[in-house]
Amino acid sequence: MKGNLLKFVLIASLVLNLSLLGTAAYKYYKQYGYWVSPFGNKMKKGSFIFEKLDLRPEQLKAMKEQAIPFRAEIDRRRYEIAQKRAGLFTLLREASPDKKAISSAISEISAMQEEMQGRITGHILEVKGSLNREQQKKFLDLIENAMKQDGQIGCPHAE
């Protein structure tokens, strides 16, 4: 009887461990296949917003060549901002928070976000300049729709 109970516990433990391992692998796989766009949307890796435009093959190739290093730079900057935010929360958790250090961290985060927004805007203008009028309109419409959340651009406002 004791041996059967031990076998049951071992099998249950093995099933639980395998299911946890499978869940972790699945989560990693799903996360690895996506990136966050400059507008905060999750997109499959290798997909580009401008693929929805009617581009000539040479335009599509040129835009992909521009977009890949741009995405890498934005992802790097997004990571740096996340690190600064983590540092800010470390300061906030202190028993006696240093208000000057908190203010400095907020200023650094704001400056980094402003610089990143400037780079995104510059990239949009650069891409826009390589398109004809019809493509420009569709491109800007795609970007505007990507930025919309619940039918509103940006943060929802209080009613």
In short, what is this structure?
The chain contains 4 helices and 4 strands. The chain is mainly α and 159 residues long. Helix 2 runs antiparallel to helix 3 (99-129).
Question: Can you offer a commentary on this structure?
Answer:
With about 160 residues, this protein is mainly alpha-helical. It has a domain at about 55-140: Four Helix Bundle (Hemerythrin (Met), subunit A) (Up-down Bundle). It has four helices and four strands. The strands form two sheets. Strands 1-2 form a two-stranded antiparallel ribbon.
Protein topology:
Layout: H1 2-32, E1 34-36, E2 42-44, H2 57-93, H3 99-129, H4 133-147, E3 148-149, E4 152-153
Helix pairs in contact: 2-3
What is the second-level CATH architecture of the domain at 56-140? Up-down Bundle
> Based on helices, strands and strand pairing, what is the structural class?
mainly alpha
CATH class of the domain at 56-140: Mainly Alpha
Low-confidence segments: 150-159
| Rg on CA atoms, Å | 23 Å
First and last CA, distance? 66 Å
Strand order of the largest sheet: 1-2
What's the mean pLDDT score? 79
Helix proportion = over 70%
Report the CATH topology name of the domain at 56-140: Four Helix Bundle (Hemerythrin (Met), subunit A)
- What is the ordering of alpha helices and beta strands? HEEHHHEE
Beta fraction: 5-15%
Overall 3D form: flat
Major sheet size, sense and barrel closure: 2 strands, antiparallel
Number of strands: 4
How many DSSP H or I helices? 4
